[in-house]
Specification:
single chain; 178 residues; alpha/beta; Nucleotidyltransferase, domain 5; six-stranded mixed β-sheet; 5 helices
């Protein structure tokens, strides 16, 4: 089993929000990043306009691993994303910061949880719960959980790829016996 950390950025905080970007980083440092075109007419939240849109293109420096990037529609991203996931191994365990919205967005790309690639383990894992179990406040600012010298070079909050890299670093730090 290989762990991958998922992060998404989307237009609003509701179940049918438009996915703007998606990133996955595996334990080895390999990453997948996709920017998707936003839906015409959907109102972007003020937070997204101020914090997410300006950093969609700002990618952190990778210290290890390979980056696979893809730009296209929701339907178009499924093929390269499935290929990337299947190249991770037989079982891919998906972790996310607070999995609800990220998992929902991820599953919706494939047409729902029943249509996920067979390599995906059916239970999404949640970093916030792991932190809580470890006695760490799950509301902590994530970049404060890693020494600054270990943050990815060029780390930008609210960029899905930056946040997925950071999430994987935090997961590695706190997963000692998970």
């Amino acid at each position: 089993m290989i762990k991958v950390f998922l992060d998404t950025e989307f237009a609003n905080l509701h179940d049918q929000a438009t996915l703007l970007s998606l990133a996955l980083v595996d334990e080895r440092g390999d990453a997948f990043y996709s920017i998707l075109p936003s839906a015409e007419g959907e109102a972007l939240s003020p937070f997204v306009r101020e914090h997410v849109l300006p950093v969609l293109e700002k990618l952190p420096q990778m210290n290890e691993g390979r980056l696979t990037s893809f730009r296209g529609s929701r339907q178009e991203v499924v093929v390269p994303l499935t290929s990337w996931l299947e190249n991770r191994g037989d079982v891919v365990q998906v972790w996310a910061d607070v999995a609800y919205h990220d998992w929902q967005q991820f599953c919706s790309l494939f047409g729902g949880v029943q249509s996920l690639p067979t390599c995906i383990h059916y239970i999404p894992m949640d970093l916030a719960t792991l932190l809580w179990v470890r006695g760490v406040n799950p509301d902590s600012v994530r970049s404060s959980l890693i020494a600054q010298e270990f943050l990815p070079e060029g780390y930008v909050p609210h960029n899905a790829l930056s946040d997925a890299y950071l999430g994987m670093l935090i997961l590695k730090k706190y997963q000692s016996d998970v």
